[in-house]
Structures are given as C-alpha cells and as structure tokens.
C-alpha cells in the first residue's frame, strides 16, 4: 500500500458505491466508504454515487451526515457525482422538487428520461472524451438548465449529460459500470492533480490499488 496515496471517500449509504470504489481502485486510487462524519476526516476527494436520491437524503439525516458532507463538498476537494449524486448537488431539483446541496448551478428533472424502459447505453457527443464513448443511463435525471461557470463536457442527443465546474464533475450516467471509463479516468487525474488532502495512513478501507 502506498501510504501517501490520496484517499477517495465514496458515500456508502445506499446505491452503487461498491462499483465506484472498485473502478477507482482500478485507477490506482485508495478508497474509503463514507458512512459517518468520522469517515470524512483526511479524505482528498469524494464520490456521490447513483442510487435513490430521496433515500440518500433520509439516510444523510439519520447518520448526522448532511452538514459534515456539505462542508466537505464546499471545501474545494475533487467531487464526482453520478445520477442520484448529481441530484444531490444540483441547485434546483424538479419532479418532484427536493432538498439538495445546490453547489452545482444546474436544474435537474428526476427520471427525466423516463423510467426503467428508457434506461440503457447511449452514445455521447463530446469534445473532451474519446470518440465512441458511451454512457449507461438508469432512471437518469435530465439536466434542463446549466448556469454560468458550469461547463458541459458531453451531450446525449441535445441534452447535457456531463458537466464540470471547478473540481466538481457530475454525470447523468454511470461510468462506474464499465471497467475503465474516460469519466472515471478524468476524475482520477483530477484527484492526482489536486494531491493528497489526506493519506492512506488515515485508514484506507477496502484496499488500495
Ligand atoms: N431516479 C433516481 C433518483 O431520482 C436516480 C437514479 C440513479 O441514480 N440511477 O434519485
């Protein structure tokens, strides 16, 4: 184990956090499942996975994690949010409206591509991702507004599906479902460029790559 490897915290209350952790370890990063405020100490970056955003909101309250996670998200550390994670970060959430951290200036419509029937893998259009990159959408939110300062990095048909503002990268789809996805690689590069906010000495649960 590389004791100086940055630790990426993966919010592990619900959803597909295990796939995220595994795909990050494949990038040589060290991961820690985050279930309580204590788990946030010493992490260099954080991932908010897909799942069910309403359930995550409830569990964040139950675990007393809403405010501590909010402080971590505002700290400037690299953040990757996918699907339900994106919903948690959005400034405005519709269908129905619900509480969110609001650190990303976008409006999202929950299940905006329809429900299970409209889930699947779709081609992405992007100037920054390799040609032929696809995204798997599962009851995905649709981004209907992107505010100033927020860059759109990929589209599905005419809709933005990958956005970045500063160190915050957010996708409507699930890069963690693929063994190596350019979005996971981009996030890993952001984490490395940002350096170790914390190190593996602090406790790396789940192993290091
Ligand atoms: N439909 C879910 C929600 O609104 C998100 C789906 C996902 O994360 N795959 O929270």
User: Which segments are poorly predicted (pLDDT under 50) over 5 or more consecutive residues?
Assistant: 198-203, 205-209
The CATH architecture term is 3-Layer(aba) Sandwich
Globular, elongated, flat, extended or rod-shaped: what is the shape? globular
Report mean pLDDT, rounded to a whole number. Answer: 92
Structural class assignment: alpha/beta
- Beta content: 25-35%
Helix content: 10-25%
Q: Could you characterize what this model shows?
A:
β1, α1 and β2 form a beta-alpha-beta unit. This protein has a single domain (7-194), classed as Class I glutamine amidotransferase (GATase) domain (Rossmann fold, 3-Layer(aba) Sandwich). The longest helix has 13 residues, at 182-194. The chain is built from five helices and twelve strands. The termini are close together. The strands form three sheets. The chain has a seven-stranded mixed beta sheet. The chain has a three-stranded mixed beta sheet with strand order 5-6-9. The protein is globular, with a radius of gyration of 16 Å. With 209 residues, the chain is of the alpha/beta class. Glutamine binds next to α4.
Brief write-up:
This protein is α/β, with parallel strands linked by helices and 209 residues long. The protein has helices spanning 17-26, 53-62, 66-74, 84-89, 182-194; strands at residues 7-11, 30-34, 45-48, 79-82, 90-94, 104-109, 120-123, 134-137, 142-146, 151-156, 159-165, 168-171.
Topology:
Elements: E1 7-11, H1 17-26, E2 30-34, E3 45-48, H2 53-62, H3 66-74, E4 79-82, H4 84-89, E5 90-94, E6 104-109, E7 120-123, E8 134-137, E9 142-146, E10 151-156, E11 159-165, E12 168-171, H5 182-194
The chain binds glutamine.
């Amino acid at each position: 184990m590389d004791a100086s490897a940055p630790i990426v915290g993966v919010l592990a209350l619900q959803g597909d956090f295990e796939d995220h952790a595994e795909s990050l370890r494949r990038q040589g990063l060290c991961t820690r499942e985050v279930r309580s405020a204590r788990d946030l100490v010493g992490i260099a970056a954080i991932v908010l996975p897909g799942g069910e955003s309403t359930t995550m909101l409830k569990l964040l309250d139950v675990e007393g994690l809403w405010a501590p996670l909010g402080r971590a998200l505002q700290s400037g550390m690299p953040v990757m949010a996918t699907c339900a994670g994106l919903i948690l970060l959005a400034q405005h959430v519709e269908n129905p409206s619900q509480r969110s951290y609001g650190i990303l200036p976008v409006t999202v419509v929950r299940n905006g591509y329809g429900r299970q029937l409209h889930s699947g893998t779709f081609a992405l259009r992007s100037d920054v991702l390799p040609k032929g990159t696809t995204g798997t959408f599962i009851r995905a939110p649709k981004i209907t507004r992107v505010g100033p300062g927020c860059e759109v990095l990929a589209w599905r048909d005419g809709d933005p599906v990958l956005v970045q503002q500063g160190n915050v990268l957010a996708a409507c789809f699930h890069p963690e479902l693929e063994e190596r996805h350019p979005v996971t690689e981009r996030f890993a590069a952001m984490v490395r460029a940002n350096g170790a906010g914390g190190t593996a000495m602090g406790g790396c649960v789940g192993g290091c790559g």
